[in-house]
């Protein structure tokens, strides 16, 4: 009996109980899913499945298992495939609206703009800014997302991506490193230098099923300067990253736009395309990354401001968010924070970068 047959049988057993008996206890939760889910929505969606067999309970399990986060308000749900956002729209849509500052996917359309020449500023004060980075994610249409993909689908993502990336030329040219072929020391060195994703300890990954079969078909591709990188099969099919030391965000964004366009061209040349629609923009695993999927961030040392009780409110007013030095599930080390834009949908890439050019360093 294959995996989907087992799932179908489990769903039949599931229906023996009323939705009220299965409704999760969310009384101590503060994520977006918990705020938007109601017994009525749960009853309406519980027995629905996507064409790939993904269920509502699988979508929300990570948010049920993880009530909240000390730094940011988490979303609390993920998609298992592109169709999840349609089949479970009665929950995804209000979650998206709550997470993205009122963006309503039922009536609004998302703009895309990768014209880096429109960015006229973007040079940060390097007394405070240690490094600059822009990243996004892209999903390959026709293959399930990491929470639901089979081993074969995950390996196909890897194959499609690295075959395309072999076509990059000039300063974007590089090579692919399979996680399964790296030594522990090499992995840790790349993690410590903020090039490679961490080992699968994040609750988002583990509770959503994204750490299955680790490290099979996972890896990192980077150019020879390590300023343009692609993560493969972590939280998303691919994460495209442009980064460098210092505060030249304009140069980082220019490389990001140029590289991303070239990656998409190479993917399309091989008969594939990225998941996208005009309501949600680019489709990714977590609703927090819909739209542009773009996070433009800096590692910034702000010893005075970070101790100011107004710090979080200042960031909120600027539509910025803070993370620890090593990312979302880490603490700040030596007063170094990862500061980035919070909104990803409803504004184009150029607009998002322009808004993230505010420097929260004046009180440092």
UniProtKB/TrEMBL annotation:
Q: Where is the Phosphagen kinase N-terminal domain?
A: 15-101
Q: Name one GO cellular component term.
A: mitochondrial inner membrane
The protein's UniProt keywords, in alphabetical order, are: ATP-binding, Kinase, Membrane, Mitochondrion, Mitochondrion inner membrane, Nucleotide-binding, Transferase, Transit peptide
InterPro entries xref list = ATP-guanido_PTrfase, ATP-guanido_PTrfase_AS, ATP-guanido_PTrfase_cat, ATP-guanido_PTrfase_N, ATP-guanido_PTrfase_N_sf, Gln_synth/guanido_kin_cat_dom
Q: Which residues cross the membrane?
A: none
Q: Name one Pfam family in it.
A: ATP-gua_PtransN
Task: List the GO biological process terms.
Answer: phosphocreatine biosynthetic process
* PANTHER family xrefs: ARGININE OR CREATINE KINASE (PTHR11547), CREATINE KINASE S-TYPE, MITOCHONDRIAL (PTHR11547:SF19)
Self-association or partners: how does it assemble?
Exists as an octamer composed of four CKMT2 homodimers.
Q: What does this protein do?
A: Reversibly catalyzes the transfer of phosphate between ATP and various phosphogens (e.g. creatine phosphate). Creatine kinase isoenzymes play a central role in energy transduction in tissues with large, fluctuating energy demands, such as skeletal muscle, heart, brain and spermatozoa.
In Swiss-Prot or TrEMBL terms, this protein is called: Creatine kinase S-type, mitochondrial
Instruction: Please give the organism.
Output: Sus scrofa (Pig)
């Amino acid at each position: 009996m294959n995996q989907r047959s087992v799932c179908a049988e489990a769903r039949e057993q599931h229906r023996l109980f009323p939705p009220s008996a299965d409704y999760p206890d969310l009384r101590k939760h503060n994520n977006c899913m918990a705020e938007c889910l109601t017994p009525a929505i749960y009853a309406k969606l519980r027995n629905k499945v996507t064409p790939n067999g993904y269920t509502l309970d699988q979508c929300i399990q990570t948010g049920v298992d993880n009530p909240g986060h000390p730094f940011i308000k988490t979303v609390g749900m993920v998609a298992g495939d592109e169709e999840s956002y349609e089949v479970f729209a009665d929950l995804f849509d209000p979650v998206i609206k709550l997470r993205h500052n009122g963006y309503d996917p039922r009536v609004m359309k998302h703009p895309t703009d990768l014209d880096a020449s429109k960015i006229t500023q973007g040079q940060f004060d390097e007394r405070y800014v240690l490094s600059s980075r822009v990243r996004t994610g892209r999903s390959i249409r026709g293959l399930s997302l990491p929470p639901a993909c089979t081993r074969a689908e995950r390996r196909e993502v890897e194959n499609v991506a690295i075959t395309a990336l072999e076509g990059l030329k000039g300063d974007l040219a590089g090579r692919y490193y399979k996680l399964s072929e790296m030594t522990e020391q090499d992995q840790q060195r790349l993690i410590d230098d903020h090039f490679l994703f961490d080992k699968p300890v994040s609750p988002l990954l583990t509770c959503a099923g994204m750490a299955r079969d680790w490290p099979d078909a996972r890896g990192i591709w980077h150019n020879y300067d390590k300023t343009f990188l692609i993560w493969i099969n972590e939280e998303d099919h691919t994460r495209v990253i442009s980064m460098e030391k210092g505060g030249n965000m304009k140069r980082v964004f220019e490389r990001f736009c140029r590289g991303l366009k070239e990656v998409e061209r190479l993917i399309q040349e091989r008969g594939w395309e990225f998941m996208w629609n005009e309501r949600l923009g680019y489709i990714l695993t977590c609703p927090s990354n819909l739209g542009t999927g773009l996070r433009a961030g800096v590692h910034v040392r702000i010893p005075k401001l970070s101790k100011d009780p107004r710090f979080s409110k200042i960031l909120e007013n600027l539509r910025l968010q803070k993370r620890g030095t090593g990312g979302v599930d880490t603490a700040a080390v030596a007063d170094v924070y990862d500061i980035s834009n919070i909104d990803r949908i409803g504004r184009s890439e150029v607009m998002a970068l322009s808004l993230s050019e505010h420097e929260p360093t004046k009180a440092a």
